[in-house]
Amino acid sequence: MDSKQGNQLHRHLAHIKVVSRLLGHELHSQGAGKTIALSRDQVVEIQTSLDLFIEEATRRLSGGSGGSRLVNEEGMKETRLVTARN
């Protein structure tokens, strides 16, 4: 793996780390109960991080953004991102 690919991988993993840290913080700060509450802003941050990761992974799978092609055109399904309804 060259340095450019390594940097891209670190950037992609950073999105998932943000989600993990946000969720971990809430679990820790809200005690040991079975339920937790998340603010709208927290959910938006989590959704944004996941959407960025999904978009980049989808782009890489379809061979976009200079990444290596992982599957052929016949193997790809179109992924449509939608917003959550509240």
Q: What brief labels describe this structure?
A:
86 residues, mainly alpha, 2 helices
Tell me, briefly, the overall form: elongated
Question: Which parts are unreliable, with pLDDT below 50 for 5 consecutive residues or more?
Answer: 66-79
Instruction: Tell me the span between the first and last alpha carbons.
Output: 42 Å
Q: Determine the fraction of residues in helical runs and give it as a percent range.
A: 55-70%
**Strand fraction:** under 5%
Order of helices and strands: HH
Average the pLDDT over all residues and give the rounded result.
74
Main beta sheet: none
The count of domains is 1
Structural class: mainly alpha
Count of runs of 4 or more consecutive helical residues: 2
Gyration radius, rounded: 16 Å
For the secondary structure, the number of strands is 0
Protein model, in words:
With 86 residues, this protein is mostly helical. The protein is 57% helix and 0% strand. The protein has helices spanning 3-29, 40-61. It starts with a helix and ends in a 25-residue tail after the last helix.
SSE diagram, text form:
Blueprint: H1 3-29, H2 40-61
Helix pairs in contact: 1-2
Short description:
This protein is mainly alpha-helical and 86 residues long.
